[in-house]
C-alpha cells in the first residue's frame, strides 16, 4: 500500500504558491516535487482536516482503504462520444488532473489566475487559498461502458466486461429514480473540506466537455463508516453508531479477501477481465430515511430494530461497542436479546456466509419534499471483491426481513468496476518532476483498453 503518512507538510509550500502556468489537457502539467506516492500528514490518516495529501499512485486506487474523509462528492457520467480514442484521451486527462489535484495543485499548470488572458483559466480557482484537505479521487466503470442496455458495444469492450459487473436486481421495496442510477463512469472525490471535493468534480467535468456529461451526483457529509482503527465510529442520521464492524485498513488479510479482485477470480472469468486484478467493485445506493417517523419512535423500538444500544453502540446481547453480538442469548419469554429482524443480526457475517464489505458511506441532506419532509439519509458506498457474493444476497435478505426497512427507501443505485491503481513512477514527468499529458500517457484503467 502507498497510503502511509508522515508528519511533514509537502516542502512547506503553500497551495497558492504552487498555482502557476500551463494548459489543461494535452499541454504539460505538473507538481513541484511531484512525489504522488506518499501521504504527507499523520492527522490525515485519522480523517482530520489537515493540509495533508494522500498518494495518487500505488497498487490500488486511493479513496478505498484510505482513512475515510469527512466529505464526499460523487458523480456518475454518461459518455457522449462513440470514439474509443476520445474516451482514452478523456481518461488520460482525468488521470493527470486527478494526480495534480490530490497533491494540492491546480488542475492545469497555469492555474486560475495566470496564462493567456483571452482564454479561460486552467483551474476554476475556488480552492486557491485552501489546503488539499486529504483529497482522494477514485475512478470506476459502469456496465454500460462495455455494452449498452440495447446490446451495443460502442468501444469494443464487450469482451472485457467482467462477469461480476452485473445489473443490480430490483430489490424488494426499491423505489429507484432512474435519473439517480447507473452511469458509464463514476468519480468519487473525498476530502475533509466540501469545497475541495466539489472543486475536483467541477474541474474533471469541465475537462470532459465533448466526451462525457454528468448523469447524477451526490454530496455527502459526516462519514458513516470508519476505515481505520485510528478513527472513532461515526453516527448516521438515526443517531446510531454506524460501521462498528467495518473492515479496516489495518486488517490487510481480510481486505484482500473481501475487497480486492484476485488474479484467480479474473482468470476464472468467462471474459478477459485480468485488467481488473487488484481492483474492486463499488456499490452505491442512495437510501432515504423517513426521519420524521423515526423521530417519533420509542427508544426501545429503535434499539430493537438496530440491535445495538443508541448511546454506547453495544450489541443488545451485552458488552461494549466492539463486543461480538451473541445471537443465542435470550431474555424474557425466551426471546433473543438481539431480535430476529434486527439489522445487526441480518447484516452480520455469520448470517451471510462469512462475507464482509468495506463501507465508505456518508450522510446526505438534499432539502425537503413538497410535504416539508427532509430528503435525507444514507448514501451507502461499499467496496467488495464480488457483488454477486458480497452484496446482492445480503441486500435481498435485508430488503425482505430487516425491520429497519419500514423507515428506509432506496431511491438511487449503481454498480461500478474500480480498476487498480497506477504503479509508482509510471506517470510521464518533465525535467522539473511534473507529470505530462501526451498521447501515450498512462491512465487509470489503461489495461482495459490494451
Automatic annotation (TrEMBL):
Chief subcellular location: other
GO BP annotations, alphabetical order: iron import into cell
Dyp-type peroxidase C-terminal domain segment(s): 233-421
UniProtKB keywords: Heme, Iron, Lyase, Metal-binding, Oxidoreductase, Peroxidase, Signal
Lineage top rank: taxon: Bacteria
Residues making up the signal peptide according to the UniProt record: none
Requisite cofactors: heme b
Compartment annotation: Cell envelope
InterPro entries found in the cross-reference section: Dimeric_a/b-barrel, Dyp_perox_C, Dyp_perox_N, Dyp_peroxidase, EfeB/EfeN, TAT_signal
SUPFAM superfamilies given in the database record: Dimeric alpha+beta barrel
Binding note for cofactor: Binds 1 heme b (iron(II)-protoporphyrin IX) group non-covalently per subunit.
Catalytic reactions on record: heme b + 2 H(+) = protoporphyrin IX + Fe(2+)
Domain Dyp-type peroxidase N-terminal residue range list: 61-221
Entries under Pfam families matching the protein: Dyp_perox_C (PF20628), Dyp_perox_N (PF04261)
GO cellular component: cell envelope; cytosol
Listed EC numbers: 1.11.1.-
Keyword Iron: yes
GO molecular function: ferrochelatase activity; heme binding; metal ion binding; peroxidase activity
Enzyme class (EC, first level): oxidoreductase
Family statement: Belongs to the DyP-type peroxidase family.
Purpose of the protein: Involved in the recovery of exogenous heme iron. Extracts iron from heme while preserving the protoporphyrin ring intact.
Name listed for the protein in its UniProt record: Deferrochelatase
Organism per entry: Cellulomonas gelida
